[in-house]
């Protein structure tokens, strides 16, 4: 019934929602759906609860994204209330769009989930598969299930390919399967420029980004006993780096995992002198940072990549982390 309604001739009002601080998979999946559903003649809006990284501003359709703010709040409220369907893309817990939760309570729209994270909440329609490498794969399946793969053009293919690249670490994570490469191959048939995509995502470091990285690396702490690395950036570190842009801290956490014998890397980020502190977790092997984050930092994500927050100061957050990490000694030592 749902597919018939979306694929039918009746025009629907649809809202697409990625999570806070949307990454390449969230934006790629959402923008691909935006183009696709507009091809089906629906009235579609893509609303981001927060700003997103400068490194994604080049994506096709990015100028159509409505970013939540005081100026756009009334417009967004109307669009959410008037919508027939609301898609929740690349997240499955409303805590990831906290600022929009109240507005969503006014909506009677059908809620559709397209996501690959574990432990989803209930939605009216769910396209959830925790085994796939990226939500972009599920969007491809969604289009395929509607027998509309012929509607994938260069713009849609580019957006989906960005999702694949970013959530698979350039096709190197354990979650990558033959299906991942099959879909990538199908997207390539639409004439996308892989070199251009890679350059946009990886080779444009602004001066501030390098300075922030330098400050983070100077603070890097290695706990050999627990095969763990952590570092941080505080509000003071950013004082002389304005205008600070979303995405300037991306990639910092990966440096820790590049150290021999390290299986757990943590990055603490205090954007302003206020709570909460944002935390990123990455791991190698069997250490499950998704469960770790859910238990201690109210977050979640994937087995080897997750995020969380804590309503404490930066020093208190790090102190709390150092207090609980000994409890995972055996898990970390035998992770690989």
TrEMBL record:
Coiled coil: none annotated. InterPro entries: DDH_dom, DHH_sf, DHHA1_dom, Oligoribo/pAp-PDE_c-di-AMP_PDE. Pfam families: DHH, DHHA1. Residues 246-325 form the DHHA1 domain. It comes from the Bacteria. Residues 13-163 form the DDH domain. This is Bifunctional oligoribonuclease/PAP phosphatase NrnA. It comes from Blattabacterium punctulatus.
